[in-house]
């Protein structure tokens, strides 16, 4: 199968291309230099020249706070760009997978969000524009996967784990938010699932994160615990103290969801293998990076 992947400079796009290659599919990786998703003519030309069997659309504007100051630019990337790709996929009658986010929900309460919950009430510009991308796909296509992910980390790019490891080297005390709950997602694991999905015609909306839930504080503590167990003593309890705090103590331009719990039962119902626990993912990830 020939699959066009957008956003290959990002954490997820990079791993999706590797996973496709591993399975003897033919990935065609593009980023903004090869295809400007905001330019319909560019999208039309590149996809038609590639003639893929499917598109996995990972490219997005993901700078959440910066998005608050430039809604038109963000909408152009996340909503219009997605719609442009969907239009060509419709014309060519090929599958499209759109990577979305837990931010399409209002982030309140303690219930697990269901993939087919239609009461999506985004809290910020990033979430709103990703939601508009979902709407465009649902309006234009029948052969689509909308896959919502959260708290992403991978080899290629910045993420929470790398940030924590860097801070832990230069500080002996850290404070981390403990009243936002969700599930970390390792792009290496996620890429495997996405390719599993694109090989089928089990279309629809899905949630895909590593198993288990935690707060950002829990996440940080586990990162440091595992790093210390690997012999990096600067992260052990004698050298580093991590204190839980409320999100109110970290005011940000964009409002963040306090509840990012997402139900993944639909994966099981459709015969897809769910991801390993987030703690297991952290362990494997730390072995892959230099710190």
UniProtKB/TrEMBL annotation:
GO terms for molecular function: dTDP-4-dehydrorhamnose reductase activity. Residues 1-289 form the RmlD-like substrate binding domain. GO terms for cellular component: cytosol. Pathway: Carbohydrate biosynthesis; dTDP-L-rhamnose biosynthesis. CDD domains: dTDP_HR_like_SDR_e. Pfam families: RmlD_sub_bind. Keywords: NADP, Oxidoreductase. GO terms for biological process: dTDP-rhamnose biosynthetic process. Its EC number is 1.1.1.133. SUPFAM superfamilies: NAD(P)-binding Rossmann-fold domains. The keyword NADP applies. The keyword DNA repair does not apply. Catalyzes the reduction of dTDP-6-deoxy-L-lyxo-4-hexulose to yield dTDP-L-rhamnose. Belongs to the dTDP-4-dehydrorhamnose reductase family. This is dTDP-4-dehydrorhamnose reductase. It comes from Candidatus Limivivens merdigallinarum.
